[in-house]
Amino acid sequence: MSDLPEPVAAFLRGKRFAVAGVSRDSKQPANAIYRKLRASGFEVLAVNPNAAQVEGTACFPDLASISGTVDGVVVATPPAAGPEIVRQCVERGVGHVWFHRSFGQGSVSEEAVREGRAAGVSCIVGGCPLMYCAPVDLGHRCMRWWLRRKGRVPG
User: Fold this and answer.
1) C-alpha distances out from residue 45 to 91, 104, 119, 130, Å
2) What is the spatial distance between Cα 6 and Cα 1, in angstroms, rounded to a whole number?
3) What is the pLDDT of residues 28-52, one digit of tens each?
4) What was the pLDDT predicted at 102?
5) Which among 16, 141, 149, 153 could bridge 43 via Cys, Cβ 3.0 to 4.6 Å?
6) Alpha-helical segments (H) within 18-137
7) At a CB cut-off of 8 Å and minimum separation 6, what does 59 contact?
């Protein structure tokens, strides 16, 4: 997709991402995001304090446990976990955070978004990389169209 909204384009210019909330249950949205980013050629790290391994790879309990740089973090956790994840991003100098949401509240914590933005972190609120990383499947293209009309994903 050549007409990416600038916040999405800026996020996807990164090379190395963490996905918070990847689960031992491969059917969870975080796992789909994890797999899509990997399939799109990014280096992707799973974060879940309750799992040592997911999707056949090592899983990190928090962002501090990851060595090297992290360009962006996708938050696909319950909203209550968001503020702590954002604090970890600020401590590590991660400049981009994407809060997953399709319908309902998703992983969005208004407190986390406020904290992130106050610290200079670029926060995307709504949608997910599956709506923007080519090739985008029909279901995610339709969701992106609908949620864009409702102002719930980046324009």
Assistant:
1) 18, 26, 23, 17
2) 12
3) 999 999 999 999 999 999 999 999 9
4) 82
5) 16
6) 29-39, 82-92, 110-118
7) 22, 46, 47, 48, 51, 52, 53
For 29, counting Cβ atoms within 10 Å of its Cβ (0-12 exposed, 13-18 middle, 19+ buried), the class is buried
Alpha-carbon span 11 to 6, nearest angstrom: 8
State the virtual CA torsion across 71, 138, 144, 104 in degrees, nearest 10.
-90
Neighbouring C-alpha atoms within 13 Å toward the C-beta of 1:
21
pTM: 0.94
pLDDT computed for residue 1 by the predictor = 44
Please enumerate in sequence order all residues whose Cβ is within 8 A of that of 48, keeping only pairs 6 or more positions apart, or say none.
20, 21, 22, 23, 54, 59, 60, 61
Distance CA 63, CA 86 (A): 10
Give pLDDT, residue 155: 65
Q: Determine the pLDDT at residue 114.
A: 97
Backbone phi and psi for residue 142, each to the nearest 5 degrees, phi listed first: -65, -45
pLDDT value, residue 66: 98
> Which residue in this structure is represented by tokens 């996807």?
12
Place of tokens 């503020």: 83
